[in-house]
Amino acid sequence: MKFFLVASWFCSASAFTAPSVGNTRFSTSMASTATTSLSRPSLVEHSTPIKEGETIPNTTFKTRTRIESEEENPFDWKDITSEEFFKGKRTVVFSLPGAFTPTCSNTHLPGYEAAYEEMKSLGIDEVYCISVNDAFVMRQWGLAQGLEEDKTVGGLGFSQVKLIPDGAAMFTRGMGMSATWEEERGFGERSWRYAAIIDDMKVEKLFIEGGGVSQDYGPDPFEVSDSGTVLEYLKSKA
To answer: What counts of helices (H) and strands (E) characterise the chain?
Structure first.
């Protein structure tokens, strides 16, 4: 009985006490295992990409919408669902690891902004950029990128490519694109880099970098989710 109580206490402590350098109760391997388990998506399906032909997840995005106000920050919270963004529309979506990061800022977003009108002429209703960042970060990133801000009341932020905040990674998990770069970049949960054509809530075409989601991956592949590749596909279907 005494042995059981001691074992039970030890298991409870190991489950709820974070390992630290000065904590001699935990070996290096145990600490490593604990850290790894905390930094990975909680369910396998969160990192198993959705397939072409499947329906995208209907999640709720916490956005900021412009209101009538003379204040410096004339916005209020607005919940927008996936259905409101995608239902009844044929859209281009591209997702990336993070706002303000090099490839995302230097090439990925600028490429789609430049191709926006051409994509619209090829039967696309809207172009969305999704990142696991909050609405405040996404707006500041757009401004830093020089995107034209939509200042109409009820506007979705910017006039061309719309920046959608997936701050809690709910949509990203539902798409099976959840990834972390803990050791490589100190990132928490983010989105794997990909692009997709979504037609009325269904995946028409997927462009996933590296062919699938990897965890704590060193390279940052950017070969198939760029605007040029998506344009080529749209032209082939026009």
So the answer is: 9, 9
